[in-house]
Design a protein that fits this description.
Length: about 210
Amino acid sequence: GELVTLIGNNGAGKTSTLMAISGVAPIRSGRIVIDGKETTRLPPHAIVARGVAHCPEGRLVFGRLTVQENLRLGAYQRKDSAGVKQDLDRVYALFPRLLERRTQLAGTLSGGEQQMLAIGRALMSRPRLLMLDEPSLGLAPLIVQRIFSVIQQLHEEGVTILLVEQNAHLALHIADRAYVLETGEVRLAGPAKRLIDNPEVRRAYLSQ
């Protein structure tokens, strides 16, 4: 699977794009096709069943549930208990800190730990397409490094990833392809390594 990033200023339409794909926001025109099948009018739970997981901006963990209860909610549509256990172990291997805090209430975790939990919960649906909205927002550099290491690992394992990230430099360095959005339209598109060297991108998003 590819790792594709969307970059752009606030209000460009990045988050709206993810919400439309996941069925949370209605679209006025166009079609959404996943694995060759149209999903434009499907409800969110049906899109999850098609293999799409959305990790939203702001994490949105269930603060009064434990870490493990949050993770199991990510697998709520699945009936394969052995597979769910396997994926739970996988999430704990990716994020050992979650294993240490598995009985702790999610609301008492740090921001970085909550972001790990949100990504782990999304992985519990065993997605073919993982959408991540601003995973580094407000986090310490060491935590960002750990989270992006996991994102790269998932990509190498074959998970297709659609990444919205305010740190354009970081996003472009790990992505295969990139789209630059401006007020809801694609302004630039191409291989991420090529866009890194684009003068317009460097001036607007890389502070160079």
